[in-house]
Amino acid sequence: MSEFNKALGGRLREVRKGLGLSLQAVQEKSDGQWKAVVVGSYERGDRGLTMIRLAALARFYGVGVAELIPELRADAKPVRLVLNVDRVRQLTQEQAQPVRQHVETVLHRRGGTSTLLEMRAADLDVLASANNTTGAQLLNQLADWGCCARA
């Protein structure tokens, strides 16, 4: 269970940071419902979460519970990219249009309304090709635009 708590905590931290929130900001934004010290203990894996609390935290972060559950399989490939959908939607650069369009398409296909979107390797390849660039260059551009929650 401890290994799971640590993996879950790491995922919680990634999502929180991807939303641009500090622990203190979580406490303030939640009007004290989520204490910084408690969320920090979840993130370190020092404290376990019930499914009810996990679902409540997922709602607070604006993501599905499944997005918070870590992948524990030894053969699992690491996630290549997680985009902050709200930040992608705010992009005004003409060159960002293919990214915005692809993100909306992927969200629609997955039936998601999340604020974070995990991009699969194939998605990254399509985006890089549509932008006449390499995957690494596209990751750098997305990071420059502030759209990467995790790379």
In short:
With 151 residues, the chain is mainly α. Helices cover 56% and strands 7% of the residues.
Descriptive notes:
With 151 residues, the chain is mainly alpha-helical. Helices cover 56% and strands 7% of the residues. It is built from eight helices and three strands. Strands 2-1-3 form a three-stranded antiparallel sheet. The chain is elongated and about 45 Å long. It starts with a helix and ends with a strand. Mean pLDDT is 81; it is low at 72-76.
Q: Topology of this structure?
A:
Elements: H1 2-18, H2 23-29, H3 36-44, H4 51-61, E1 81-84, H5 85-90, H6 97-110, E2 116-119, H7 121-130, H8 135-144, E3 148-150
Antiparallel strand pairs: 1-2, 1-3
Helix pairs in contact: 1-3, 2-3
Main features:
151 residues, mainly alpha, three-stranded antiparallel beta sheet, 7% strand
**Number of H/I helices:** 8
Biggest sheet: strands, sense, closure?
3 strands, antiparallel
Rg for CA atoms = 16 Å
Widest β-sheet, arrangement of strands: 2-1-3
Structural class: mainly alpha
Q: Indicate the mean pLDDT.
A: 81
Large-scale geometry: elongated
Task: Tell me the fraction of residues in β-strands, as a range.
Answer: 5-15%
Separation of termini?
A: 27 Å
Order of helices and strands: HHHHEHHEHHE
Residue share in helix: 55-70%
Number of strands: 3
Low-confidence residue ranges: 72-76
